Amino acid sequence: MTYCCALRLKEGLVFVSDTRTNAGVDHISVFRKLYIFGQPGKRFFTIQTSGNLATTQAVIGFLKNQLTIKQEPNLYSVNTMFEVAELVGQTLKKVINDVTTDTLEQSNYYCSLLLGGQIGHEPMQLYNIYPQGNFICATKDTPFFQIGESKYGKPILDRALAYDMPLDEALRCSLISFDSTLRSNVSVGMPLDVVVYQKDSLIVPNGKRIFESDKYFQRISHEWSDLLKKGLLDLPKPTCDYFE
Amino acid sequence: MTYCCALRLKEGLVFVSDTRTNAGVDHISVFRKLYIFGQPGKRFFTIQTSGNLATTQAVIGFLKNQLTIKQEPNLYSVNTMFEVAELVGQTLKKVINDVTTDTLEQSNYYCSLLLGGQIGHEPMQLYNIYPQGNFICATKDTPFFQIGESKYGKPILDRALAYDMPLDEALRCSLISFDSTLRSNVSVGMPLDVVVYQKDSLIVPNGKRIFESDKYFQRISHEWSDLLKKGLLDLPKPTCDYFE
Q: Listed GO cellular component terms (chains A, B) (predicted)?
């Protein structure tokens, strides 16, 4: 399984992905699902992947190979984020069609992708790209996307995330979303990959990998559990009619 | 869709169910999914249902009809909670087999049931009963079961619920679990049905129905959201390397 989430906020973009893959619970591996692309001062984007690992690695492989052999169009030749989304979507569709053209069988090879970034001083964009190659983009009303095992981590995003929230607060919100998912589903696992992009910086961040031993992550995980337990106690007591 | 959860704790039992059923998002109805049975001073139990509505209503219908026509074994004639679970499981299996014996087609008629209660001064029990008629029972290690749309509401139970928690605190925990689910999935809906049973009381509670206008539920929902937002702000800020 997999959990990836991406936020497109007023001040920038936040991306978090886990790294666990499994073919049955007895075959668990660590694979990166968050890929960083960019040319400092010109363009930056990430692609996050969920689904069939052969498909996702083939998509990233094709896109990187186009850059290596300078075949156009490629990620660094297209002009807008919309064109990047089209290129990635068409690559995904081609990869699946290369395996099988049987539409029923194709679902075995499906994957979903999140693409977020900025080119020049055009607005930042965040896309959710489907196996069919089409996509939707995030808006102020719905500033985040999730792919993979999204349900455990959705309540905190639904309650607390807002488009105009500072990036460091949004990052804490998404890390708590991951901590909740890690606790409730063993098929989502550490380490996590995190990338934060400041709007209009056109810096290509290195990103950070969070291992189980990460002191900051351990601390917010413990503090959050304590907060919830104390918070429950502080809520007003149920009225008598609940017990009748 | 549906969300039901049931807790078997040191001090008693807590049951909460939503009431929304849907055949497509354009066909939504309110149906009770929490049924109360009992003989004051002798036995008490509830059955919560998730899945095909015709199946769940047939199961409850058969069980009630056995009581009406005094056909034995029935819910009030069997001696232990284990025998109640067997009776309910076999009734469920029979209802599905009556519709079709094709095992592939049967899955269309599946439902899951939670059964919890106490007979005399035997220990309280909580069972999760599968469409095949077999079941598992809750333990101190795993003091709760969920059926239906369980994922959104699981993190708070995983983090905060404990076997030796007072009933009123456990009730608050389960109501927050429902509030999180209601916010994240429109196929789970108000009103909610709640039953709290005090260990060894052998009282048959009436239960409470929580409507959208319920002041107490509104209050804990708002206070919880405020708590989470404030809690995120109070967490230590991410270190600089998250932004590099």
A: proteasome core complex
Please state, in angstroms and rounded to a whole number, the distance separating the CA atoms of residues A101 and A93. Answer: 11
Nearest by CB to A151, from B151, B169, B241: name it.
B151
What does the alpha-carbon distance between residue B186 and residue A66 come to, in Å, rounded to a whole number?
Answer: 43
B134 CB contacts (<8 Å, ≥6 apart)? B89
- For A120-240, where are the E strands, in sequence order? 125-129, 135-137, 144-148, 192-198, 208-210
Q: Cβ contact (<8 Å) for A173 and B205?
A: no
What is the model's pLDDT at position A187? 84
Other Cβ atoms less than 10 A from the Cβ of B65: the count is 11
Per-residue confidence at B233, pLDDT binned at 50, 70, 90? very high
A146 close to A155: Cβ distance less than 8 angstroms: no
Distance CA A237, CA B169 (A): 8
Residues of A in contact with B172 (CB under 8 A): 232, 235, 237-238
Query: Smallest Cα–Cα separation from A113: which of A79, A140, A90?
Result: A90
Between CA A54 and CA A52 the distance in angstroms is 6
State the number of CA atoms in the 13 A half-sphere of B227 facing the CB.
20
Domain B3-213 falls in which CATH fold?
Glutamine Phosphoribosylpyrophosphate, subunit 1, domain 1 (3.60.20)
Could you report the per-residue pLDDT of A122-137, keeping only the tens digit for each? 999 999 999 999 999 9
CATH domain A3-212 topology: Glutamine Phosphoribosylpyrophosphate, subunit 1, domain 1 (3.60.20)
Under 8 Å between Cβ of A195 and A34: yes
The answer to whether A80 touches A122, Cβ cutoff 8 Å, is: yes
User: How many Å lie between the alpha carbon of B1 and the closest alpha carbon of chain A?
Assistant: 15
Tokens representing B160 are 């905060």
- Two tokens, residue A101: 């053209």
- Give chain A positions within 8 Å (CB) of B152: 151-152, 154-155
Cβ atoms A67, A74 nearer than 8 A: yes
CB atoms closer than 10 angstroms to residue A29: 11
Compute the Cα dihedral for B234, B237, B242, B244 and give only its sign: positive
Closest partner residue to A208 (CB to CB) among B151, B175, B242 is B242
Question: Which tokens in the block code for residue B70?
Answer: 């005094």
Q: What gap in Å lies between CA B221 and CA A236, rounded to an integer?
A: 11
**Distance between CA A153 and CA A144 in Å, rounded?**
12
Q: In the block, which residue shows the tokens 């404030």?
A: B230
Q: Which residue of B has its CA nearest to A197?
A: B243
Tens of pLDDT, residue by residue over B134-152, are: 999 999 999 999 999 999 9
Interface predicted TM-score (ipTM) over 0.90 = no
Provide the terminal-to-terminal Cα distance of chain A, rounded to the nearest Å: 43
